[in-house]
Amino acid sequence: MEDNNVISVRDLGVKFHLSEQKVDNLKEYVIRILKRQMRYKEFWALREVSFSVKKGERIAILGLNGAGKSTLLKVIAGVLKATEGTVSKSGVLVPLLELGAGFDPQYTGAENIYLYGAMLGYSKAFLKEKYEEIVAFSELGDFIHVPVKNYSSGMRARLGFSIATLVEPDILILDEVLSVGDVKFRKKSEKRIKEMFKKGTTVLFVSHNLTQVKTLCTRAIWLEGGHVVADGPVEEVAEQFEQKVTK
Amino acid sequence: MTVLSNFQKYRNLLAELVKKDIKLKYRNSYLGVIWTMLEPLLTMVVLTLVFSKLLGKGTKDFPVYILTGRLLYSFFSNGTKAALKSVRANASMIKKVYVPKYMYPFATVLSNYVIFLISLIVLAIVALARGVYPTVQLMWIVVPLLQILLLTAGAGLILSTMAVFFRDIEYLWGVMLMLVMYACAIFYQVQDVISEKNAWIFKLNPLYAIIVNFRNAVFGQPMDFQAMWYATGFGVIAVLFGVFVFYKKQDKFILYL
């Protein structure tokens, strides 16, 4: 890997098996094997995708629904395994995908700080130290001792955002989450993210909002049908993409 | 080694998951952890009432005999059932945040183990009350306690993997557990229900081998070393096979959850 590449993706391919009817029990599986009816349709969500990202670059991933954007982010986040090719990354990666997905609804906000924090790989001592800061930033006040199942979706996202952005990540993955909570919190979260930008955090950003993309990002990768169509400065690629889509 | 350093990083998560399981289990129950002890105690009373005249010949340590079998069996049963569901129950997290996936079945088995260890207090109380006093042999109790953890963790890994792909494993395992229960001799003695030449049915059951030595330790009898080696071998193989299956299939989980 070259020295200042934070992420490098080489010939990445992700294949899904789409069985025509979903077989999810043993009984049916055995019957189908016996009748030789196990047929799969293969589907490549991503194919021959290669690019590398330098430190501090902010990359927008453009594409219509089903182009493979989320799949790409999932592979980079380590949730999904590549079928072929390699993805290497260095440094702390924080995915801001569906904030608060790791919460347990029965647990209170305070307990979830430790649970979700542990899920992101933070130590207990570190979380204890940062606990006050998280609570303060989330503005949940006394609600922090209420089970998360009673939270509104905004409150949940606020807590999730506060925990996930606790450390300064080297790589930040954003999937349309810049609209968390109410106006006031949105301003605050935008400020925090912009601070990270200034510190040279590498960002991968998926959004359908082209204006936002143009102001936030420096480079854009346009995916279509799992392939990279264009990769370059954000203005150019977004322009091409816009023309193609509105045509 | 990367696996070890990764475990190091997420060790806090394992502790958090175990804590969560235990906390949530008793959060909304009035008696809390007392239930852990009350429940086996009540089943013991029922089984004693029903079977003491029939099978136990009314001996006074029959309740202790029942309780030992019943506690070990219910740990195995609850632990494997919960582990079976563990990967699927955490599907939403597995799809969004990367954590080593074996954390989920392991944490489930461990939290059940902690609850099981707490419930041993009730055994100690009943044993003393019925005049079964500890002897030097009691030191051996560590062996069956470790063996059952191995066996449950191994079975749990295998089941949690299978349950991702086949949803009906849960029901099949329920039936299987019933068979295992009758082959554990919880509320009868093997020689009372089966002739000597058919006793191998029990000997094949690794859980029975564990229970035998657990009882030997409690009642101050010498260990059955054949059973001990069998249970250890079975437990180690179950864990190795479980780890192998889990690692082989874990990258596919997300496609089926």
Q: Could you walk me through the main structural features you see in this protein, from its secondary elements to its overall organization?
A:
The complex is a heterodimer of chains A (247) and B (257). Chain A is of the alpha/beta class. Chain A folds into two domains: 5-92 and 205-246, P-loop containing nucleotide triphosphate hydrolases (Rossmann fold); 102-166. Helices cover 37% and strands 28% of the residues of chain A. In chain A, the strands form two sheets. Chain A has a six-stranded mixed sheet with strand order 5-6-7-3-8-9, sandwiched between helices. In chain A, strands 2-1-4 form a three-stranded antiparallel sheet, covered by helices on one side. In chain A, helix 3 packs across helix 4 and helix 4 (124-138) packs across helix 5 (153-164). Chain A is globular and about 60 Å long. By secondary structure, chain B is an all-alpha fold. Chain B has one domain (12-256). Chain B is 75% helix and 0% strand. Chain B has twelve helices and no strands. In chain B, helix 2 (34-51) packs across helix 5 and helix 3 (62-89) runs antiparallel to helix 7 (169-182). Chain B is globular, with a radius of gyration of 19 Å. Chain B starts with a helix and ends with a helix. The mean pLDDT of chain B is 89.
